[in-house]
Amino acid sequence: MGASDFAKLPHIGEAVRRKEDYRFLTGSGQYTDDVNLPNQRCAVFVRSPHAHAMIKSIDTSRADGMPGVAKIFTGKDLDGKMGGLPCGWLITSTDGTPMKEPPHPVLAVGKVRYVGDHVAMVIADTLEQARNAAEAVSVDYDVLPAVVDVRDAAKGKALHDIAPDNHCYKWAIGDKAKVDEVFARAAHVTKLDLTNNRLVPNAMEPRSAIGSFNRASDEYTLYVSNQNPHVERLLMTAFVLGLPEHKVRVIAPDVGGGFGSKIYLYAEDVAVTWAAKQLNCAVKWTADRSEAFLCDAHGRDHVTHCELALDAQGKFLGLRVHTDANLGAYLSTFSTCVPTILYATLLAGQYTTPQIYVEVDAWFTNTAPVDAYRGAGRPEATYLLERIVTRAAWETGLSQDEIRKRNFITSFPYQTPVALQYDTGDYHAAMDKAKQLADVAGFDARRKASEAKGLKRGIGYSSYIEACGIAPSNIAGALGARAGLFECGEIRVHPTGSVTVFTGSHSHGQGHETTFAQVVAARLGIPVENVDVVHGDTGRVPFGMGTYGSRSISVGGAAIMKALDKIEAKAKKIAAHLMEAGEGDVEFSGGEFKIKGTDKKVTFGQVALTAYVPHNYPLDKLEPGLNETAFYDPTNFTFPAGTYITEVEVDPATGVVRLDRFTAVDDFGTIINPMIVEGQVHGGLVQGIGQALLENCVYDKDSGQLVTGSFMDYAMPRADDIPMFKLDTVCTPCTHNPLGTKGCGEAGAIGSPPAVINAVLDAVRDLGVKELDMPATPARVWAAIQAAKH
Ligand code: MCN
After folding, report:
1. By the 8 A CB rule, do 754 and 196 touch?
2. Is the pTM of this model over 0.90?
3. Which CATH architecture has domain 3-29+485-632?
4. What is the ipTM of this complex?
5. What is residue 482's predicted lDDT score, i.e. its pLDDT?
6. Residue nearest to atom 2 of ligand 1 (CA)
7. Which residues belong to any copy of the Aldehyde oxidase/xanthine dehydrogenase a/b hammerhead domain (predicted)?
């Protein structure tokens, strides 16, 4: 079935209420910490209080004898018994020197490298006993100098022997000579230095893991709050524990948000699984909020210099970028691909810039590992590009919308100079719709009204593009990644015609149980209630690559569509047999198989029953059952895009920024469920606004302590920070997946930060303020205004 026929099916584009919400709203969801196994003990981790130190000795003698303590493991106990944590998606350096991949032991051996690093695991009968004993573990450290700022990394003391200058890799894309050549003949060059602030993901449910081991079957089970259980299992068995994969079952039950931070194989997950066998008991660990701040992989943390060359008409000629990316103390599972193929390849944005050169230096510092956080690389690219485009508009006297429109790509497919080929889009349509919805025509009047109150009003634009549906194996491989990321779906039709879908995607808030059911119900012509979706269990789902990169509907959904093609093909054979017709004469629509040109028909339910009750069934030609599995590897990314327009009021006396208006027009191709998509956009926008105005993860420069280690110091956006959003969409269906969908899960977080900061800068630029880094807190805005005065 083609994407255009699919879009016309019933249930597609319908705001079906979320099937999963009854269980969440009535408190009957089951998160990992809700699971309690027989014979279960609790684990607490002793963590490094220092950012960088040698471990001289660990004395567990006092803790060992404390009530309830079963065992205390240190790095030495694990050393040699398992491998280190892997960096799954390796990127190779492009300057000829090998990328440094230092060992990442599950528990530190000899040295700690960030505050919160894992020093020992204490296992006791109760959580309180484990906590008390953990406090009694005495560690003698020899403290070393710490480096936390990526700009200082090269001068800092080496974290790892294999990286004496803390440099991990250099990576570049584009033709440097050609870019230099266009800069030499440019009519205007705009330059910008910016920092993309480090963020803490802060999912509502902190991470949690319970390992258990069944001696009778020689099998492990790990319950874990995770976004991709099959990959977790693969990495843990193949790289760390050296176990046959089928001997480990990973179950990620209800997960209360991940935002990228639960894609990785974390030390705690491995430690509790391994310890379960050693102690012959289940071992449970749940992070408290402070541990989440310290030890969940953080996001962003780039420092960038960029330059945009323009001709006399404001057409972009070239973009030159250098970024220093902070990777933290160790390589987290996917960290190396974030500042490279998920970042640099997006720097064409929506524009026809013919030459782009991007160079990335990635560094180790004494901070928590940095990895993907909602958007992963693409927010960093969009922030840079949309900031420099707006600055170029102001420098050349063009309006923010005009400079964008002059440079929009209008013809598709479009090959960018940074490896991607956009299949479809209509950037002018999104811009025009956004301008109308935002009432840009009324901005001058609103600005005057603000001025009358002594406030400065500014308007900010951002026209973002992202690459979702991660990742086509052929493109990922060509860009140096180790693996591509297909998806798997199984459709099990039951004899009564109801259906269970087994998907390798994982829903941790995105509503897959509803939208995937809509897809199946639409194709088979059955009620949405008759379709259940199973995910998050390696024991039930054949295989999966999980959820991140807004890939689930476009890759996981496409795998389901492929399995449905097989179901339909087999069901037609059964229908032909039932109606004593030739298979080629059977057509299927609206849940009915009909013989072309006649009124003969059988329902999907009749066919399903026949598959399992095969009277007079031609068993020599047809197997009983109606159950199909498919794997789908996309041929390209999907390219959601849109234009966001914001308005802010700034109080020049205090620096307080009030976000007054936010308009977002997105292109997600065919939309399965507009209510769920709107919710996804809302969530993303709030996270992007949080980054722009409030959130900032700060380490003390000297001690390497996390200064913003609680919600008292790390400001999350709240309802009163956010205006009512005005949302709309344009639709250019994706041309290469069978649903025509493009991902929507990260768009809001990608497009919104530059829209907000451009508006803040627009508000205060006549006061002489030229530059402002995120978050635009009152203190920063006020200081920038004062600095501009002098
Ligand atoms: N959808 C749709 N029509 C489209 C596109 C999507 O109806 N054209 C629906 C999908 O069927 C799905 C939802 O919208 O129910 C999101 O789909 P998609 O864009 O494919 O994204 P994923 O499901 O792969 O989710 C991943 C994405 C990412 S990368 C992060 S980070 C993120 C996000 O989703 N983390 C989230 N949204 C989140 N929402 C919640 N509540 N919690 C998180 O941790």
Report:
1. no
2. yes
3. 2-Layer Sandwich (3.30)
4. 0.99
5. 65
6. 672
7. 26-145
